[in-house]
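Quarterly update from the structural biology core.
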Amino acid sequence: MYQVLYRKWRPKVFEDVSGQPQVTTTLKNELISGRINHAYLFTGSRGTGKTTCAKILAKAVNCLNPQNGDPCGECEICRGIDDGTVLDISEIDAASNNGVDNIRAIIEEAAFAPSKAKYRVYIIDEVHMLSPGAFNALLKTLEEPPSNVVFILATTEVHKLPATILSRCQRFDFHRIAARDIADRLEYVAQQENIQLEDEAALLIASVADGALRDALTLLDRCMGVSDNITSEVVQKTAGLAGRGHLFDITRSIIDKNVKQALEITQQLYNESKDMGRLCQELLDHFRNLMLIKTMKSPESLIMLSAQEREQAKQQAQEFSLEGIVYVMDVLQKSYDRMFKGGNKRAEMELALIKLTSVQLDTSTEALMARIAKLERMVKNGVTVSPEHKAQSATAEVKEAAAPVVPKINREQLTVQTTPQAQAVASQAKTDYDYDTIVKNAVPMEDWQEVLEVLRKYSITIATSFKNTRAYISGDYILIDSQNELAFKLLKQQSQRERMREAVKEVTGRVYKLGPYKKLDQQDKQENPLDQFIKQAKESGVPVEEE
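Predicted structure, tokenized:
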């Protein structure tokens, strides 16, 4: 009969136990020195090696030829424990044997000497399931046990154990196994099974297992049934995962407040039979990565992403404030909880995305306070919202030029006698407004720093780029004084320019055209483009006349 991987590759010695050196090292040292306790308590989450270490310890205390604290695995006792012929080792499930009578039977049996081994070992799994009466019955035996009895208690919920039990046991806490340790063990098992397992696929399995090696081996077993060459795509297909590309796309739709795109991606994943609960959990994990990137200098050890995905995640993290990330995680967590309380998973997922992409539907305290602050700023600036005002704002937004304002020169009396092509170039220098006049009429913008604070909600990247800058207002223009070229490069991108415009509108209540600010003395130092044209024309022998 086929034996599943987590049973077939259960460690036989402490050295093979992954990710629990704080337990295995101490147990080996105690066994080497002969300091064997009468009661051990192993605590930790599922799949971290509690039962495995209990079985190794049961063999090690009875092994006829121990090897540096580990059982030899070859002696009569070790082989008898493995095949179940040594009856002095008992493994009891407290979930189904939790009564007083069950514990009394153990106590009566413990009074007799072992039949074959040196110690009677009782491994009581899920010990927190024992009834209060059973705990009381066990208490006296744990306090004064026979000299040839060892109790090993294992539990995932140590807080449910009475303090009187805890105080009579030597406690070992099993940690969640690091993803890298799980991936290394999976690659070893795959090699022994003659299976090709990519490192990225092993890390993905480890991430899904969430610190439980048994869960990871179970998923690897399922992947082996799909293909002998296990890639990330095979893992995603087997585990019903949404590819990380979809997670980045959904996050982008949240950033852009694009509800249509978010729902279309969800519909596509639903049609591909992706579980909505799993999708919500993965999206929650994705925003956890963004939160760690936002709050830590070196989060690489805590997030399992490739180098390319890590760079992409860093870019998306810059688009959020920390408060924004926490809010998204809160919405997703509440939606995930409702999914498993009888709610429609698909509807809950769509509802969460609509909340995250539609600001007007966000009824959280933080969102309401932000909207109230926005209204207060608009009232402070004398803004009234009306259909006419909306139409004017929309018209101004459409007419705004995509590029920053470029200085132009107006010379009404200039006549150039040259070829038609030269005359066409010269005519382009004429315009309806004078940049010099715009600069002369510019006054400092008092609310500029407030604009940058509001801008942080839309784009932290732009807000950071415009740090320590000043702005001036002149008519319909806001001229920005900055020595950072990156700032103006960002403004050339339509999405970033829209965010700047929204921040300005939120503070001032008006829609302005954006451009760079250059002092007049700096402009005079630059060669006039029209003078340069006249100079080149003269050098080429073309007659030019200036009036």
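The first strand starts at residue 39 and ends at 44.
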